[in-house]
Amino acid sequence: MDYRKLLADIVILQDVDSSEIEPLIVRPKDPSMGDWCLPCFKFAGKFRKSPAELAKDVVSRIGAYNFLEKAEAVGPYVNFTLDKKTVAREVLDRALGEGGNYGGSEEGSGKTVCIDYSSVNIAKPFHMGHMLNTSIGAALYRIYGALGYNVVGINHLGDWGTQFGKLIVAYKKWGDREDIESKGVRGLLDIYVRFHSEAEKDPSLDDEARAWFKKIEDGDSEARALFLWFKEITLKEVGKVYDRLGVKFDSYAGESFYNDKMKPVLEELERDGLIEESDGAKIVRFENDKYPPCLLVRSDGATLYATRDLAAAIYRKNTYDFYKCLYVVAYQQNLHFMQLFEVLRMMKKPWADDMVHVAHGMVSLEDGALSTRSGHVVFLEDVLDTAVAKALEIIDRKSPDLANKRETAEAVGVGAVIFGMLYNGRIKDVTFSYDKVLNFDGETGPYVQYTYARCKSLIDKCPREGESEDLSGIADAEGHALVSLIGDYPDAVKLAAEKYEPSIVARHVMDVAQAFNKFYLGHNIAGAEPAVKNARLSLVAATMTVIENGLRLLGIRTPEKM
Ligand code: ARG
Fold first, then answer.
1. Which residue of 162, 337, 479, 511 has the fewest CB atoms within a 10 Å radius of its CB?
2. Which residues form the pocket of ligand 1, taking CB atoms under 6 Å from any ligand atom?
3. What is the per-residue pLDDT across 301-339, written as a single tens digit (0 to 9) for each?
4. Candidates 119, 257, 304, 370: which one to mutate for ligand 1, based on the most atoms within 8 Å of Cβ?
5. Containing H/E element for 325?
6. How close is the Cα of 158 to the center of ligand 1, in Å?
């Protein structure tokens, strides 16, 4: 039930449509003030009254309704207190009735959203710095999916550039096929690093590298075979991590995919008179130089990252006819995306405004940065392994007799890392700490998972008796707070999509877990009389529904025992 809509409908203000009132209705900061409140500032002028007078007026015209316990004017606000049992019945029926679909909808039906995320670079390590990106993108993928959108997950691989020439030179000089096969990306990284140190002494290596890259471009069979092999090695390794994270893509069309798709775009730009030659290079200048010019073709004829992204945007529109195209990419690339979207606007693409850069912050480890350049590379796989090992230690201590401890530790350890990435607003930088994300009593994934397991064991240990439910058993402050949060969950999912912000779901699930634990502390469930017990068990089950659905959207599993 949409109570805001319902309340907006029962507020009678002459010549004001309820659709104007609805957005003003909010949750009061202090729950003792009621469930919802309507601030009366906006329309006070229109009725030549003070907001406080208007609030009184509004209240005097509100009739009696079953779902409404009372409406009161408090200063400039109208505070609404709903009937707790009515809300409880409605929320429980909805959450339990919809089960695994609760929080989802069909609002996106018929619309396609492309989400470009993770977008790893071939032959470069998949390191901890990619975790924020991958978690946010994958969560948005699932959130939009739950809202009925057709989602296309795109891994825009960084699989083009002179570094592949360097890798070929390095491989031919110092590489060993078996060694690299067994070491994977680490093996490629080793020879790549060696190339750089040797090239400092012998710059002719750079010329060799350029020549090999040219061979890749020209389709030389040896060069291409090596290029594809590097790609295969990287994707195999990255794929293992994606599997652990429960992440998937519908397309791996990366930068090299656009090799033959840039020419028509450049021609279109020429036709539109948008290209300018500058020292042999092709650039697009912006009105009033509001951004630096966008370089599309270098003087040596090479195309750039931006050229590929331009071709990719047009290809995606033609292929998927998206409603929105999201780019989950760190904020360092803000300028790149501003330029890209502006060029599309200048090309008069009506869909240019459907492109969204979902910018996010950076990850660092407590003991230092994670940049490749400083040589301090922390492989994501190692972080996951460490988190799982630490989770296993904790589980060993807490529940030594648990069956399938390893599997549980995997769900808890990996879940802890994901939750740690998604709990804060995406634009924030994250300082990652194992102890912080694995703290079972903190605002963490394991805390929420543990709450879920606690609910599950309650349900298992304490069977229902009979059919009747006495909702007064969950109609006090704590019960009602939990019911309200469960009822608000679908709004949180919707808002998370609107704002491209999975943290809204993570926060909501945390609020539900905390509210449940408060309720659980203050209420006897097993020993309550049957009708009260049944009502409480329904609330426990609805709590599980929200935690399970919410964590699933974030990519986190919910073990039944911990
Ligand atoms: N591979 C790029 C990087 O690591 C990210 C690509 C993002 N997607 C895009 N369409 N530009 O920086």
1. 162
2. 116, 119, 121, 156, 158, 309, 312, 327, 329
3. 889 999 999 999 999 999 999 999 999 999 999 999 999
4. 119
5. strand 324-330
6. 7
Residues 6+ apart with CB under 8 A from 508: 485, 488, 489, 492, 546, 550
Q: How far is the CA of 254 from the centre of ligand 1 (A)?
A: 9
In angstroms, what is the span from residue 203 Cα to ligand 1's centroid? 29
The amino acid at residue 252 is Y
Q: Which of 333, 335, 362, 373 to mutate to test the pocket of ligand 1 (most atoms within 8 A of CB)?
A: 333
Q: Indicate the top mutation candidate among 114, 156, 377 to test ligand 1's pocket, ranked by most ligand atoms within 8 A of CB.
A: 156
Q: Is residue 159 predicted with pLDDT exceeding 60?
A: yes
* Ligand 1 centroid to residue 205 C-alpha, Å: 27
Q: State the pLDDT at residue 162.
A: 87
When the pLDDT of each residue in the chain is averaged and rounded to a whole number, the result is 95
Q: For residue 377, what pLDDT band results from cuts at 50, 70 and 90?
A: confident
Is the overall model pTM greater than 0.85, yes or no?
Answer: yes
**CA 209, 214, 220, 223 torsion: positive or negative?**
positive
pLDDT higher than 80, residue 443:
yes
pLDDT in tens, 207-261: 999 999 999 989 999 999 999 999 999 999 999 999 999 999 999 999 999 999 9
Return the pLDDT at 384.
96
Q: Distance from the CA of 520 to the center of ligand 1, in angstroms?
A: 46
Phi, psi of 373 (to 5 degrees): -65, -40
What's residue 367's pLDDT?
67
* Among protein residues, the one whose CA lies closest to atom 6 of ligand 1: 119
Tell me if residue 71 falls in helix, strand or coil.
Answer: strand
Residue 464 CA to residue 533 CA, distance in Å, equals 7
Pairwise CA distance, residues 324 & 120, whole Å: 22
Q: Read off the pLDDT of residues 501-534 as tens digits, 9 standing for 90 and up.
A: 999 999 999 999 999 999 999 999 999 999 999 9
DSSP H or E segment with residue 356: strand 355-360
- Structure-block tokens of residue 346: 């200048």
Return the ligand 1 atom nearest residue 336 CA: 11
Number of H helices, E strands in the chain: 21, 12
Inter-helix orientation angle 263-271/305-320, to 10°:
90
Residues 6+ apart with CB under 8 A from 375: 193
CA distance 107 to 147: 6
Average pLDDT over residues 441-463: 97
Is a pLDDT exceeding 60 seen at residue 375? no
Task: Give the ligand 1 atom nearest the CA of 305.
Answer: 11
C-alpha 333 to ligand 1 mean position (Å)? 9
Report the separation in Å between the CA atom of 445 and the middle of ligand 1, taken as the mean of its atom positions.
28
